[in-house]
Every structure is written in structure tokens, then in C-alpha cells.
Amino acid sequence: MNAPAHPYRVAVFVSGSGSNLQALLDAQQTGDLGNAEIVLVVSDRADAYGLQRALKHGVAAAFVPLRRPRDPAVRAEWEHRLADVTAAFTPDLIVLAGFMRVLSPVFLDRFPNRVINQHPALLPDDGGDAFTTSCGVVIPALRGAHVVADALRLGLPITGCTIHRVTPAVDDGPVLARAEVPILPGDTEETLHERIKQVEHRLIVEVVTRLARLNG
Of the candidates 117, 112, 14, which has an alpha carbon nearest to the alpha carbon of residue 62? Predict the structure, then answer.
């Protein structure tokens, strides 16, 4: 008789409502997350609803505030504290799911090759400035915190989402999965972002399940 697979421990970082976290929690509850297990949810904001989602599912939730983000010394101390809290739960994977803080080597060096990010735009494999869609349209690789609004402002015909490994360069790093989302006439930032989120929910479950199967 085969022994049960070792749980693949996952920490999820959020700054807001945590809808992608909810997709992972739902998949875990239905058994669709394989041997992956959400063991910790962390936020830099006390009012992040993602923390409440975690508690409702019996998952440990931690609030790690960053009081003065523009102060390099304070920020470095915060990253050390964030890493210490996270390390206490021995995660095999850390998912940045709407986490609005950039992590430096202060944090990333503690968890080499174990941090992935969801980005609501299409990023190329080579870290370049452009992406070629499946229909051959070349669009700019949008990076930063306002990429959904940027896609509309630039009049792009298509956008999407990318899941990639995190490196010190912002919204860079090896791509793990990606999906395209058409921009429809009359789209607002809210309607477009909502459609991107629906695709993100499916994609993050697929990626975490795959990583758990490969590494668990």
C-alpha cells in the first residue's frame, strides 16, 4: 500500500480581497489542488479581506504591517520580519496573489525559486518589452501596478494574465503559465479586471497543482 503524498505546503500573500486565494481554498476543499495545502495567508494590510477568507477556512492568517515603505531601513526590517513569519510555516511555495509590495533579495534569498506571482497582463518569456499574442498581434509587455488601466488607455485589443517565478526585477522571471483575455468594446477597468480574474482563478489552481505534483 502506497504511503500518502507529503503535503506540498503553500503560503499565499494578499493585499486585498483575495479572490485568487479563494479559488485555491475552494480547490483544496474539493480535492482539486492535489497534495497542495494552504498553510498560511499573509497580508501587509489589516483590512485585507483575504485574511478573513483564511480564518473561515481554518488557515493561519498573519498581518505584517509596513509602516514607512519609503524608508529603506524600515522596509528591509519589514522584509526580514515577513520572512521570519513565513519561514515558521516551512512553505514549499509562496504565491503572491494580489500582493502589492515588491520583494527584494532580503526576502527572496530566504526562499530561492519558491516564490511565484500572478500578474494581470501578458509577459514574454524573455523578459522583453513586447509580447506576441496567439493571433500574431504584438503588444507591449505591461508591468507595474496599473496594467489593466494601461491596457485600456493604450487601446490594446487583447490582454491577459501571467504566472511567473519572482526575481528581484519587477514583473519579470521565468513564465509558468499565461492566458489571453480579449478586450471588448465598452470595457471599463472594472469589467476587464473581473474577466481577467476569472481566468486567473483557473490558472493559479492549475499552476499550484502542477508544482505540487512535480515537487511534492
Answer: 14
Instruction: Output DSSP code: residue 136.
Output: S
Contacts of 154 (CB under 8 A, 6+ apart): 140
**Spatial separation of the C-alpha atoms in residues 114 and 29, rounded to whole Å:** 23
Does CATH number 3.40.1280.10 belong to domain 8-215? no
pLDDT in tens, 119-156: 999 999 988 999 999 999 999 999 998 999 999 999 99
The helix/strand/coil state of 22 is: helix
CA torsion, points 47, 98, 206, 62, in degrees to nearest 10? -40
Q: Of 6, 80, 119, 193, which is the active-site residue?
A: 119
Domain spans, the chain? 8-215
Specify whether 119 is catalytic: yes
Q: What are phi and psi of 118, to 5 degrees?
A: -100, 130
Q: Quote the CA–CA distance of 172 and 164 in Å, as a whole number.
A: 7
Pair 111, 86: CB distance under 8 Å? yes
**Ranges of H-type helices in the chain:** 19-30, 49-56, 72-87, 105-108, 147-153, 189-215
Tell me, rounded to whole angstroms, the distance of Cα 190 from its chain centroid: 19
Residue 190 and residue 166 in contact, taking contact as beta carbons nearer than 8 Å:
no
Q: Is the dihedral of CA 173, 188, 98, 104 positive or negative?
A: positive
Q: Would the pTM count as exceeding 0.85?
A: yes
